[in-house]
Amino acid sequence: MASDPTIPKSKTDALTQPSASADIAAFVAKAKAMGPHAAGGRGRLVFALDATMSRQPTWDMACTLQADMFREAASIGSLDIRLVYFRGLSECRATGWISDTAQLARLMGKIACQGGQTQIGKVLSETRREAVASGVRALVFVGDAMEESVDELCARAGELGLLKVPVFMFQEGQDPAAEQAFREIARLTGGAWCRFDPGAAAQLRELLRAVAAYAAGGREALTRLASSAPGAAKLLGQMR
Asked: What is the DSSP letter of 6?
């Protein structure tokens, strides 16, 4: 892709700690309980990442692991991903819908993290705009901080909830303000919040595969995932 397309402007632009494994199990349980999508249909997933400077290690992990989302979805139906990221001074960008893992990997490999504050509100607004325009099954966000008005984020999350677009908030680390906000965004949209340990590629992989399975095939797809992924089978066994 020659350049990163800018997010289209929209009128709406303007959370004792449980273990990481328990959080992941709770996320999969939440996704499993959601309504199924038709098998064989194309899933549309907004994949949003904090690309501020502190996120470089996780950005590099996501570049490696994003192929797992496509592979998981391919066993169920298919998946189109729209990458959204923010960084620097008020920079927030989005790609078009991508159905090829190599194309997404090439694009992500060209993006360098830059210092700046979070812009989660813009991510929620862009997802709402796209959901109204062409439909979105889910939004997954990966980040470690929240530096915005919680009330404003909740208002935008509520709009996604009305559109029945669940938001899966994946938090790296222990920041309490981020946890409070991420949990509430997930609650308002009917999605889920989950923490993963800093630098834990295996945990992030499990989460991304699970949300891709949901986007492509709904709760039944998560059960099928257990037949080929021992980690998912172990999580499903804990849900009974």
From this structure: B
